[in-house]
Amino acid sequence: MASETRRTSHQVTFAVLAAGVTAYALLQSLVTPVLPTIQEDLHTNQNTVTWVLTAYLLSASIFTPIMGRIGDMIGKERVFVVTLGALAAGSLLAALATNVTVMIVARAIQGIGGGVLPLAFGIIRDEFPREKLNGAVGMIASILAVGGGLGIVLSGPIVNALDYHWLFWLPMILTLVSAVAAHFFVPESPVRTPGRISWAPALLLSAWLVALLVALSEAPMWGWGSGKVIGLIVAAVLLAAGWVQVERRAATPLIDMKMMARPAVWTNNLVALLVGVGMYAVFAFLPEFVQTPKSTGYGFGASITQSGLILLPMSVMMFLVGLGSNNLANRIGGKTVVVIGSLIGTVSMALLAFAHTSTWELYVATAVMGAGFGLTFAAMSSLIVSAVPPAQTGVASGMNANIRTIGGSIGAALMASVVTASPAADGLPKEAGYTNGFAMLGGALLIAAVAAMLIPVTRRTTRIDFADEPQHPELAMVPGGTVVGDKPE
After folding, report:
1. Which residue has the higher pLDDT, 264 or 46?
2. Which residue ranges traverse the bilayer (predicted)?
């Protein structure tokens, strides 16, 4: 009876999870258009203020899998509340920051909030009826992507009506409300994976991610051929190799390398990396493109608010398409949906590269982009959840989101290098820089479509091994007719 009661409240559970994920997603992008304002207010330089973004990215990359693993061990609802608390604390500190050092520390604390995504996926798999599972996972994935775009759209109006501090006050309020609601309304996890955190893998994971992302973030300023960038990239490769070996030997690995080696997992992660390259680079550089003065011959001289509105069709389409992606996946298969979504994304990048003489062309391009990303993210998240046992849902989905973030770092860094490669006499980028950059992003999404073709199709089976029968069949899900239980492998 308790299990049935828990099941009947899945709509309330979803609303609470969605609110927490929305707060995290907004904080990913709200500050992007106002970095010059923060730079001036905190009396710092452009190179230092970029760490307001980099610190958040680094922290989220490190804590996403760690918080997902802790949730699998001690309870996802409990860790979800703690993660939201950290996100709120970081937002409070950022809102009160009077110098750039405090702001950077605050953003690093906010990055702990990256754990909300794997925890939300895990709670959904534990609590939702199996016929609602894929749709709910797709919706959460869409909310994450939509929130990232919506943050850029909302940034200008919030700053104009209030000031940039409210870019932290408002998400903090939403986060606190979500944390309280999660404590009272989200049931505790019935699925646990006993164990402990192996700190050696965690430290190595942190080290190679820091080395890689610092190199990619600073490469446009230091130079791609500089000793510091090359040294950091080499260090990242060596540390990553060491991390993989330590994880394989750990009694309780942070990331199960056998799980990561599953064809359905590594192929989806490769697609996530490449799609992340495109999405985050557009978030960072399309506003700059349209804010470029008209005197350059290609810019639109748009304000922060106007440049954000150009991204609004992407957020709307991403959300709407995400709503219907589950039905489409049921008809033609999740793999096919990911391929189609990646190809649609490629078309949108081609439009940005070669059709940007009028603003209506940009609105069309971002709407097409939203449709492609909405299909890809929703279907990809469902494929990941379907490919692993319930006990590994948090870590698997967390790493998929993490890899998307890493892809975003790569895309933003590469885009910066291409756009600024040959500046004009006035120091501003030439139009060819943006054309080449968007064309490069289109190439990355085309490769993502090819990678999606490698995703295996789940086959139906008529034979069930009773030795692997789920301990709690009501918690099982049925991907392609194959029962996946709730016991760890």
Report:
1. 264
2. 12-36, 48-67, 79-98, 104-124, 136-154, 166-186, 198-216, 222-244, 265-286, 298-324, 336-356, 362-385, 406-425, 437-457
Give the DSSP letter string of 160-228. HHS-TTHHHHHHHHHHHHHHHHHHHHSPPPS--------HHHHHHHHHHHHHHHHHHHHHHHH-TTSHH
Question: Can you name the residues that pair with 477 across neighbouring β-strands?
Answer: 484
Beta carbons of 413 and 216 less than 8 angstroms apart: yes
Q: What residue has token string 């948090």?
A: 394
Taking only the tens place, the pLDDT of each residue in 133-154 is 777 777 777 777 677 767 877 8
Residue 278: its H or E element: helix 263-291
Q: What percent of the chain has pLDDT over 90?
A: 21
First-to-final CA distance of the chain: 28
* Token pair of 326 as six digits: 């589950």
Amino acid at 283: F
Label residue 153 exposed, middle or buried (CB < 10 Å: 0-12, 13-18, 19+): buried
Residue 457 identity (one-letter amino acid): V
Which tens digit of pLDDT belongs to each residue from 192-201? Answer: 666 677 778 8
List the helix and strand counts (H, then E) for the chain: 20, 0
Beta bridge partners of 484: 477
Residue 301's contacts (CB-CB under 8 Å, 6 or more residues apart) are: 291, 292, 293, 294
Between CA 483 and CA 476 the distance in angstroms is: 7
| Residue 39, CA atoms < 13 Å, CB-side half-sphere | 13
- The Cα 126–Cα 129 span in angstroms is 9
- Check residue 31 and report its DSSP letter: T
Confidence of residue 32 (pLDDT cuts 50, 70, 90): confident
Nearest CA-CA partner of 397 in 64, 74, 29: 64
Q: What is the mean pLDDT of residues 92-98?
A: 92
Per-residue model confidence (pLDDT) at position 289:
87
The Cα–Cα gap between 438 and 164 comes to 29
Answer for the pair 299, 434: CB distance below 8 angstroms, yes or no: no
Dist. CA 433–CA 415, nearest whole Å: 9
CB atoms within 10 A of CB 379: 33
